[in-house]
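Thread: "does anyone have the structure for this chain?"

Original post by V.I.:
We have the sequence but no experimental structure in hand. Need at least a predicted one for the grant figures.
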Amino acid sequence: MRMPDRLVPLSTLRRRRLLTQRALAQKAGITQATLVSLELGKATPRIQTMQKIATALGVDPMEIAEFNRAIEGPVEAT
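Reply from O.Q.:
Generated one for you, C-alpha cells below.
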C-alpha cells in the first residue's frame, strides 16, 4: 500500500473545511466524544470510523494521519 507523501492530522483537515467537531461528528455519523478522542490521540481509531470521517471530509482516508496509525501503527512525521 502506497503511503501519501504527507499525512495530515484530522484536526487540520476539519479546520480547513471550517467544520466544528460537532458538525463533523454529525456529518460522519459518530459521536463528538469519539472525534475529540481521535483528534487528541487518546483513542485508537477503528478503520471503519476513519473511513466515515474521510467520506464526510471528502478526502482519501490514506491522507489522514490517524487512519494510517490505525492500519500500520504509529507514523512518525518527517
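V.I.: this helps a lot. The chain has one domain: 10-69.
O.Q.: and The domain at 10-69 is CATH 1.10.260.40 (434 Repressor (Amino-terminal Domain)).
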